[in-house]
Amino acid sequence: MAPTLSALFQCLPNLSALSITHYILLLILTILLLIYTQTRSSTPNLGLPPSPPSFPLLGHLHRLGSLPHRSLQKLSTIYGPIMYLRLGTVPTVVLSSASAVEKLIRFNDAALASRPRSAVADILLYGSTDVAFSPYGEYWCQVRRICVLHLLSTKRVQSFGFIRDQEVSLLIEKIRSNGRCDSVVNLSQMLIKLPMILSAAFGHKFSDDGTSKAHNLLKDFSAYLGKTLVGEHVPCLGWYDWSTGIKKRMRKTAEGLDSFIESIIEEHVKVKREGLEEGKYEDEMEGRDLVDIMLNIQGNCVDTGVSLGRNNIKAIILDMLFAGTDVVYTAIEWTMAELIKNPQEMKRVQDEVRSVVNTAGKLTEELVEKMTYLNAAIKETFRLHPPVPLLVPRESTKGIELMGYHIPAGTRFIINAWAIGHDENTWERADEFMAERFLGSSVDYKGQHFGLIPFGIGRRICAGIGFATATIGFALATLLHHFDWDLPNVMKGKPLDMSEINGISVHKKLDLILEAQPYSII
Ligand code: HEM
What we know:
Blueprint: H1 5-10, H2 20-36, H3 68-79, E1 82-87, E2 90-95, H4 98-108, H5 119-124, H6 138-152, H7 154-159, H8 161-181, E3 184-186, H9 187-191, H10 196-202, H11 208-225, H12 230-233, H13 238-244, H14 246-277, H15 290-297, H16 310-341, H17 343-360, H18 365-369, H19 372-384, E4 394-395, E5 400-402, E6 405-407, E7 412-415, H20 417-421, H21 465-482, E8 483-486, E9 500-501, E10 507-508, E11 513-518
Parallel strand pairs: 2-7
Antiparallel strand pairs: 1-2, 3-11, 4-7, 5-6, 8-11, 9-10
């Protein structure tokens, strides 16, 4: 399959924003590249995995398209579950099957525990000093440990149960009061205002305005983290990023988020200062939120071995903020969309939730854990719509032998969790939503079953699985218990639009607008 002109243009974002001069420049460049387009296979015989034809200079960048998880999955049906791509100058291996990932992680977890340097993460995450993008090493180990210990451990997650309860009750109240005028609800817009992580991690109450503002910035943050900067991959085309103004826009988003996080930190500093002045502030960690704890550790590396500066703290807060709001909300939205698309599944889940709650008298997180059909529906959604479909890229720190190929150190690894979830070799009727496939099955998403890896795998697996699943399960059970959900009359009989919009987390493109009828026990 020869690379096409239109395919090339797909990889270059925001072309519509370009002037005619840029188009002409690009056209000339493209023609030059086409003149030099070579052979059907660009893989030199170095024992590397199969590779599609490529352009000189751009390599396979143009193959990513606007939804890379889908483009790469299509390519994998031709070139196999392990493919070699050259993204500009960046050697990249893409894995698209459970068995390929299992072989990779079982034997090479440590060699694959680092992240590649990313110019986007450097701009947005204070030089990649957060947990998710920092390279493997002592700093990563310590900051991950701090987050797990003080925010994400099972004990801490349980202790935030009352916050989830409060926030979800508020959401239900908002939907009810909206329903007094109109039973049609923009559920997506309601969900983005669920500020559970804000309250849990930052001990902070935000207005609807505050959470909406933060959410809009986080939406851009996600979109940028999912982008491929041309100049990062092909340094001599760095002018292209400059000409589109993308870096300038990224910096603006970073500044917006910075001032939001500064306000959180400043409030903590003020409370601490006032407390100390009044002799009421105790230094013990128990009961303090993550920001307090990091401020206490700031500049003091005796206990932890790392010294946290203000920017490090902000980077870590941003990680938690993004994962705890945007990614969690994405999962709830996809599950509701699938249940609406599959009314029989909706009925089974809702019958289960209501029967459990009606018997117990009140919904609790312990009860949610026991709701087998609801939990099966959540797993099925993670399979079909992993919120972070390409996980977060890895980079090999030493040479690896994998499936008969030799992959040198310094190679980027993309693991396509979306392709794995849609793989007919692992899943029967893979494109259908069938929650019951998980009933009585031990398959879960905690990194032991390589066919279902929405939270990743190995030592860089998501640190917030407990927080995420407690929030998602409780929010969904409450929504399904309190309301009957359907499409609004004008949309009935039409297929629900499930288009996606790209980012590091992949959202539903269109808001989920539903009719919510309050449920009452007769
Ligand atoms: C549905 C919700 C979520 C999904 C699908 C998700 C998914 C992921 C994925 C795919 C990774 C990369 C794993 C890898 O490289 O193998 C990751 C990393 C991470 N996640 Fe989550 N996540 C979710 C929620 C959360 C929450 C609520 C938090 C914390 C508040 C969190 C904190 C983290 C952190 C700190 C990392 C970086 C781990 C590391 O690099 O060591 N996540 N997550």
